[in-house]
Specification:
SH3_Rv0428c; elongated; single chain; 6 helices; 31% strand; Histone acetyltransferase Rv0428c-like SH3 domain-containing protein
């Protein structure tokens, strides 16, 4: 690994102890000296004697991981995000993409402050997406709240919607758990890594 800068992503094919089998170590080049090389893998550092290295090469950087919440919502027929989650920077972009892809998007607000929050973020155009739980006469995470929200989603779309077609994300575990009990697909909101 002469001339390869530390931190570069590499793969080493090297002999295992005993010398009869080989394995690969993929990760960042962490250290080199005249007798060994160390690669920082996902499982920790691996130090290999240079005499045991069969092949070494630089590989492209790790591709960015897909945002699991985004992939989850894209599989939905109706994507429901809590308003608080939707107003984070990556989510604003995601909601715009989902709308652009023709997906039905609902922003669930359990505070009655949607207009103010949207105005504060310059997103007044999203007002028609808001489903205000207090206006439905039932608050999530009650079964009645989800039934009322589901009925309102069907009314807005003008068609029946299977509960499993609705994917919800919220940062609060109790909301996610209650949505699952109701029959919606639900995932705890996590920002992209």
């Amino acid at each position: 690994m002469i001339g390869v800068p530390l931190g570069t992503r590499v793969v080493l094919r090297h002999l295992l102890p005993g010398g009869e089998q080989a394995t690969d170590s993929l990760g960042e080049l962490a250290a080199t000296d005249s007798t060994s090389v160390t690669v920082r893998t996902r499982r920790g550092p691996v130090t290999v004697d240079l005499a045991d290295v069969l092949l070494a090469k630089v590989v492209p950087p790790t591709p960015p991981r897909a945002w699991r919440v985004a992939a989850f919502l894209r599989r939905a027929h109706v994507a429901v995000l809590s308003l608080d989650c939707a107003l984070t920077e990556p989510s604003v972009r995601l909601v715009g993409e989902l709308i652009g892809e023709g997906l039905a998007v609902v922003l669930l607000d359990d505070s009655d402050r949607a207009s103010e929050l949207l105005r504060d973020h310059g997103l007044e155009r999203w007002a028609p997406l808001v489903l205000a739980a207090p206006a439905l006469g039932a608050l999530t995470p009650s079964p009645e709240g989800y039934a009322a929200a589901h009925q309102e989603i069907e009314r807005r779309l003008g068609r029946r919607v299977g509960t499993a077609e609705v994917h919800l994300t919220d940062a609060r575990l109790e909301i996610v758990d209650a949505a699952r009990v109701f029959g919606w697909q639900a995932r705890v909101f996590t920002p992209p890594s």
